[in-house]
Specification:
alpha/beta
């Protein structure tokens, strides 16, 4: 029997697909989240400004850090310092390949681009894909100042070709490759560029701020054309490789989504969507309650230790600025609650032994609560209870996940943020092929996550009043 996808589930999944297709890097994800927030009335503020003294009741604010992390929050009508924060925390980075600072490589007639692996990717899935480049570029402005601009090249530029089976007869039995020497993308042929030499190739007068000698002139020319600048006006960049194949709905009844970067752009999109929708509802005018907040972090896939990661000052700084005295700060922390939202592992039909017998989440089966006795996930009985009651408010379902005793457990931003004293629970949506260049997730679950986060923003404060722990 085919599953019937509700209209809201289908619409939410399609909105996500549009978001992820436009967000090949954390920089683009933060930009697109900002656009959505501003369309919902959020005002951009800057960490360098003295904004905490000008916060208004029913105010909607957001700020970004280094173009790669974002915090948005709303102020209740009767807000006072010492109020708690209801936070949905996610991350916008995913395993990928990144262009090296000196990427210019050439071998037996091929132009190649040196790359570095980022995170724990399923790297063999990157072979034979139509790859391109996206990221940010520092360029000279017409007035002589400098600006970091986003770039997304919308055509295939690069490819990592696999070795023909005729030259490696054992490839289907034992696929191994050296990530430094056998995993280098090709950009083109040297012969094709010989007749395209121009003044742009000259680097004899290069300065310390020049990168002209570090990369193929052909590559710099593509970047320059995309940004309508000259190659000499490019001073530095962070470029990521991405798969140009668009994300799509799939399956017999569109019950699946086939896409890159669903870990963790799904949860990030749902957080943005939920808070953007919430501020236009009647519940936003409730007189009392927590400051509702979303936090989209960078660098979770490599440990979160950075200025824009979950171990940075982003959340501590917000807590401090909203409740500046030690007493008020402590009260705010005690009244706060954080949902760490990151994708989880669905039971795989071909590898069922990889899940504990009683903890086998399915795609489209509802929100997954992730638990680990060793605190790789921050969930406990209190957090799990809160999530179950919030999901219940929207008529949804929950699933439980706990790793087998004979397998290592991954982690999220939850445990590190819980060290601030925040009550924390780890949740996510179930998916297959996590960290592949093409992942699979349930299209229904996008709305399931939006519903949880919306219920959290609407109902946590009242629920918390009914709960006695300490």
């Amino acid at each position: 029997m085919m599953l019937q996808v509700s209209q809201s589930s289908s619409e939410a999944a399609r909105r996500f697909i549009a978001f992820v297709n436009a967000s090949p890097t954390p920089f683009h994800a933060v930009h697109n989240a900002s656009v959505r927030l501003e369309a919902s009335g959020f005002k951009k503020i800057r960490e360098a400004d003295d904004w905490e003294k000008t916060l208004q009741p029913r105010g909607k604010y957001y700020f970004t850090r280094n173009q790669s992390s974002l915090v948005a929050f709303t102020i209740p009508p009767n807000w006072k310092q010492g109020a708690g924060l209801s936070i949905v925390a996610t991350h916008v980075d995913s395993p990928n390949l990144r262009v090296r600072p000196i990427s210019k490589r050439e071998r037996i007639g091929y132009l190649q681009v040196g790359v570095e692996t980022y995170g724990g990717g399923i790297w063999h899935s990157w072979f034979d894909r139509d790859l391109s480049l996206a990221g940010r570029v520092v360029v000279t402005q017409q007035d002589g100042t400098f600006q970091s601009k986003l770039i997304k090249v919308d055509r295939p530029l690069l490819r990592i070709p696999s070795l023909a089976i005729h030259l490696d007869r054992n490839v289907n039995d034992n696929l191994k490759f050296n990530q430094e020497t056998e995993f280098v993308p090709i950009l083109g042929l040297v012969a094709e560029t010989l007749n395209k030499k121009s003044k742009d190739d000259k680097v004899s007068n290069a300065t310390a701020a020049s990168i002209q000698g570090n990369h193929h002139p052909a590559l710099l020319s593509v970047i320059a054309n995309e940004l309508s600048v000259s190659p000499e006006e490019i001073h530095d960049f962070e470029l990521h490789l991405y798969d140009t194949q668009p994300s799509v709905l799939g399956g017999i009844d569109n019950e699946f989504m086939f896409s890159p970067r669903m870990d963790n752009q799904v949860c990030s999109f749902c957080a943005v969507d939920a808070i953007s929708t919430y501020v236009s509802s009647s519940n936003f005018n409730l007189l009392e309650g927590n400051v509702n907040c979303i936090a989209l972090f960078n660098h979770e896939e490599i440990g979160s230790v950075s200025t824009s990661g979950a171990e940075s000052s982003l959340i501590p700084s917000l807590l401090q600025r909203l409740s500046p005295t030690p007493a008020l700060h402590s009260q705010s922390v005690a009244r706060s609650f954080l949902i760490s939202a990151d994708m989880g592992h669905a039971i795989h039909p071909n590898f069922t032994s990889k899940h504990e017998d009683n903890h086998q989440p399915t795609m489209n089966g509802g929100i997954v609560i992730k638990t680990n006795a060793k605190q790789k996930y921050a969930s406990d009985a209190i957090g799990s209870f809160v999530v179950k009651k919030l999901v219940e408010r929207k008529g949804g379902k929950v699933q439980e996940y706990e790793v087998r005793n004979d397998m290592a457990c991954g982690s999220t931003v939850g445990p590190m943020l819980s060290k601030l004293g925040l009550r924390t629970v780890d949740v996510g949506n179930a998916m297959l092929s996590m960290h592949s260049i093409r992942e699979t997730a349930g299209s229904h679950d996008v709305q399931n996550a939006i519903d949880l986060f919306t219920s959290f923003f609407e109902g946590f404060t009242e629920l918390d009043k009914t709960l006695t722990v300490d």
